[in-house]
Design a protein that fits this description.
The protein is mainly beta. Helix content is 11%, strand content 54%. The strands form three sheets. A twelve-stranded antiparallel beta barrel has the order 1-2-3-4-5-6-7-8-9-10-11-12. Strands 13-14-15-16-17-18-19-22 form an eight-stranded antiparallel barrel. The protein is globular, with a radius of gyration of 23 Å. It starts with 14 loop residues before the first helix and ends with a strand.
């Protein structure tokens, strides 16, 4: 485990207020994750940070509806793909946003597509104290709309995954100037008895264009912060007004307008998020790499949190996992087992392996919690045990949904879904590869994963065929690992 820093933070908050805050915070988190189970998710308006808090030194975010955790209705439409890159040098902030927008159903008059490239240069003013931080950013730049390679990018990605091409005509090209303003405030305090600190963030931002459009967002998030990590859940109001540069841009702006539920976590240089708009079931997700500017908190870390993110090997799917090496496990399980065990939360989603239909897909999402036990104590963070293979086994219980979704206009199967309790197990190996300057450790893991839903489900086709799903199975996954002090 990383060595704790000799730093003491005093927030000067009355004990009664802290008790009430902790109860409210924990209740909100339990409700949040039970609702979303999956957060910037939609790149529109002023440049957003890839995780709560101040802008990092540099970041690169991939935003795609395929990263939405199967929480919403994913039809590969509207803001189907986007990339955001940013860099901060002292008080100077540069950001580039590239998005592929589509309107497959012709809601703007006819089916069409348009790509949007926005580049801005601005300044950042921030203040930071022991228990709070604030930041204000403003800038201006330009935006181009038209054919900027989005069709080639999308269809190349589809060809690699064996998905059908998306053939849509481009709308006209257009150029305009833009300006933005964004502010955020983050407060945090010690969280007892859990490690880390509890916090809350408020943010608001908007971007206006010379063509007459206005896009923005205002939101609040509850936070659980470590030294270089944070988990969050919140609500964001996204709005758009005025004249959009194209009919497709107007359709996308209307689709994204509303109250979004956002959730995610960040460890070291990685951030993962997802969001859903309950009214329209619009959903999107993000995967970011970043170079942090400052630690999230300055308290002495007391434990280690490990995040893993990767892909399933046997079918198109993604895996997110968080492990916590809690000190109380040694008291509960004994010293030998407790030093090798950690609590684990695992969320994975994608397509069920073994089901092959051109016009229909069988999709799943699965949330599990349980215990991970390694062959010997965790070497993550120990410099003398890098490259040491570490076998492990995990047992989890949880919830799984499988659903049939139409991918074409002439599916023989009716759309259907079923939810079941599920038992899961994994056998695999982890390797710690390198240590970062701030105490983070990076590595990789590979595992064989099995799942068994408690009860099958049956779907029927219009031709009288029958499909049994929720059958259980075996797959494999490869994951990137990052461990950070908490």
């Amino acid at each position: 485990m990383p060595r704790p820093m000799n730093v003491t933070v005093s927030c000067g908050i009355a004990p009664m207020w802290m008790t009430m805050w902790t109860m409210v915070w924990m209740t909100a988190w339990a409700t949040a994750w039970a609702t979303v189970c999956a957060a910037p998710c939609v790149a529109a308006g002023a440049p957003e940070t890839p995780r709560p808090g101040e802008y990092p030194r540099a970041w690169l975010s991939w935003i795609d509806d395929s990263l939405n955790g199967e929480v919403g209705d994913n039809r590969d439409d509207f803001r189907s793909n986007a990339f955001v890159a940013g860099c901060r040098v002292r008080s100077l902030l540069a950001c580039v946003d590239y998005a592929n927008l589509t309107d497959k159903r012709g809601l703007g008059g006819r089916p069409a597509r348009v790509d949007v490239l926005t580049a801005t240069l601005g300044g950042v003013y921030d203040r930071r104290a022991e228990s709070w931080s604030a930041e204000l950013a403003a800038g201006a730049g330009g935006r181009r709309s038209g054919d900027i390679g989005g069709a080639r990018l999308q269809n190349g990605w589809h060809a690699a995954l064996g998905l059908p091409r998306v053939e849509l005509p481009y709308e006209r090209s257009d150029d305009e100037g833009v300006a933005y303003l964004r502010g955020e405030w983050l407060g945090h305090a010690a969280l007892t008895p859990l490690p880390g600190e509890a916090g809350i963030e408020f943010s608001v931002g908007a971007m206006a264009g010379t063509g007459g459009e206005l896009e923005g967002a205002a939101g609040a998030k509850s936070l659980w912060l470590g030294e270089d990590g944070v988990a969050w859940f919140g609500v964001t109001l996204r709005f758009a007004a005025g004249d959009q540069p194209s009919p497709t841009a107007r359709v996308v702006a209307d689709h994204e307008t509303g109250w979004w539920l956002d959730a995610g976590f960040s460890l070291g240089p990685c951030a993962i998020g997802a969001g859903v708009e309950p009214r329209t079931r619009s959903a999107s997700g993000s995967l970011s790499a970043l170079i942090p500017l400052e630690p999230m908190t300055r308290h002495a870390p007391v434990s280690t949190v490990v995040g893993e993110f990767g892909a399933t090997v046997t079918a198109y799917g993604l895996v997110s996992q968080v492990r916590w090496s809690a000190a109380h496990l040694e008291r509960v399980l004994g010293a030998w087992m407790g030093r090798r065990a950690s609590w684990v939360i695992d969320y994975r989603y994608g397509r069920v392996p073994g089901f092959a239909q051109d016009d229909t897909s069988l999709r799943f999402r699965q949330l599990g919690a349980g215990l991970d036990v390694a062959a010997w104590p965790d070497p993550l963070g120990a410099r003398d045990s890098r490259w040491l293979p570490r076998p492990f086994a995990a047992v989890l219980v949880g919830w799984r949904q499988e659903r049939l979704q139409h991918e074409g206009p002439s599916s023989a199967w009716e759309e259907d879904s079923a939810q079941r309790a599920v038992l899961c197990g994994s056998l695999g190996v982890r390797v710690a590869m390198s240590d970062g300057d701030g105490g983070e450790t990076y590595g990789a893991s590979a595992s064989i994963d099995a799942w068994r839903p408690l009860g099958m489900a049956t779907a029927r086709s219009s031709t009288g065929g029958q499909l049994d799903f929720q059958r259980g199975g075996v797959g494999a996954s490869l994951r990137f690992v990052c461990a950070a002090p908490w």
